[in-house]
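Please review this one.

:::
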Amino acid sequence: MTSPRRWPCGVAAALAALTVLGLPARAQTRRPMTLVDIAELQRLGAPRLSPDGRTLAYMLSKVDWKVGRPISHLWRQDVNGAPMQLTFSEAGDTPIPRSVRWSPDGKTLLFSRGGQIQLIPADGGEPRALTHHATPPSSPNWSPDGTAVYFLASDPPTSDERERERLRDDVYAFEENYKHQQLWKVIVASGAEMPVTTGNMSVLEYRLSRDGTKVAMHRAPSPLAGDGFRGEVWVMDVTGANANARALTRNEIPESAAEVSPDNSQVLFLADSNERFEPYYNTTIFVVPAAGGTPQPVLPDFKYAIDDAAWAPDGKSIVAVVNLGVHNELFQIDVSSHRARQLTDGQHYIPTQAGGWQIVPASGTLMLQLDQPSRWGDIWTMPLAGGTPTQITHAYDPMERDFILPRQEKVEWKGADGQTIEGMLMYPVGYQPGTRYPLVVQMHGGPFESDHFGGGSGQLLNYFPVLAAKGYAVLRPNYRGSIGYGNAFYRDPVGNYFRNMQTDVMNGVDALISRGIADPDRLVCMGWSAGGTLVNKLVTMTDRFKAASSGAGIANWISLFAQSEIRSYRIPWFGGTPWQKNAPIDLLWNMSPLKDVANVKTPTLFVSGDSDTRVGLPQSVEMYRALKSNNVPTHLLVGPGEGHNWGGLRHQIDKANHELEWFEKYANHRAYVFEKAPTP
């Protein structure tokens, strides 16, 4: 048996080490962050509080340059104690969001490794594989009595398909060669596995009822990303064979987070629609009788978008993570009165897609992960009724201890029509009032996202602390189309994609120039996905930017519709597809940056992954070849094997190096020395 190791962590460890050396804590010299520093930050993921609310389990990841990726291991920590590492395998564990789960009695932890579900004593010991499934399980959850674990898994290949693969007889029908994903359960004592759902539908996500007798789920005609909007909310008994399964919705609206109420009488779910189930509205909470009926919005005409939601233990209220633009907060919502009460407020962001929050009914506790300006994801707890959060982990203490971080500030300005626009301003390290600095405008994707306090997603792709360390101010505008500012703001691209977002950005630039922060002669813009598309638009309409970088951006909406695996949320922007009768071809072309590419004078980099199915490499090729033909300085950087969101650490560092060299050359007229990743 491997003995668990207890490791000192965070501020306490730093102070202890400095005391031994006879040095005061403040004597340690802080320095600006580098690209390698960002890559090497340890990261905390998949947090889960025990049923009694006393102990936290989570994955902690540290980069291993020999394999070129972070290696994750399972840790636990009493809420008033020191962290303890539980797993030590060389290849590491799988840090999938929501993959760590406590058994109902708090004695066993569930996690993922090597494509299977593992169990380990919560006090430490040797893990054992619970599943030996033919395809990798995901989304595991214990039954309330602890006798079984539920999970999702794709149907395995048939013997004929395996033989064809062996013979390399592998021609396939595009978007027809998928396998459905079903809900399964495994008996903990015996390891016996059995399907809960079967048939020609895929279970995209699910949640068990509190008593373990029912399950709410989202089922779609296929597991393809493009069919997600065709999924519906279902509820069924967990006895198997699709027992008493019934669909509670019938629409073509993206839905998520379905959950049965504690008394099994209602089901809540989220939908990207208004109360009439019309598409493309801020995410809304609905409640529907579990026996069937008409779904009703819990907060009609609520201004903000819902990031996630779950039933409170009383069954009368719902706790939700609400997006307020540059931050998101916990709210408690009374279902009968339709009133919302804010529980938290601060300069932070709760990463819901990473499983960054949890209700613990037995202890009346909320667990939340907070992405903050100087620590990018430590865990806090607070009473369910509200109160002051208490910090539990100190995994990100080295950020404040070791590095000079840029000051973050919410800034506001007016759009061309007088609409208030918000954004995040990252000040250059060593900022001196009265001095003008080069400005990098970083634009988020979506456009139905928002930039916020903290590090955000894509920390190495955006590397704003490195830009600030090199003397750049960084503006991250929440332009029209962003989430968290009401439906009119969110729906601005509908019918005219570039109605306001480009002028929102330029007005933000001018606001910082008027404040004496930005140098108008040293402007740079960069963005990814929808942000890359906005870069493509901006360089066709102005030559004010001295350099630009467009990552995974769209050049041509007409060709994009057939190239991308998702079209549903784009249809409202243009009122249809390019291949329908009376297609909106003129609008699609008029909104395409390629239409005006002859106007581009700004030296522009293009970046794409060669395995990106969302906004594929051909879109960047169209822009690159246009600029190349017109003698505008340009390069196209291609990430081998990278999808829409890059994951390779060396790829991300190389991308950042090329961008920094480009920005320094054209905006600052100075040389840049590439930063190298450590050699194993």
Q: What stands out?
A: The chain has a mean pLDDT of 93. Residues 80 and 160 are 56 Å apart (CA to CA). The first strand starts at residue 5 and ends at 6. Residues 649-668 form the longest helix (20 residues).
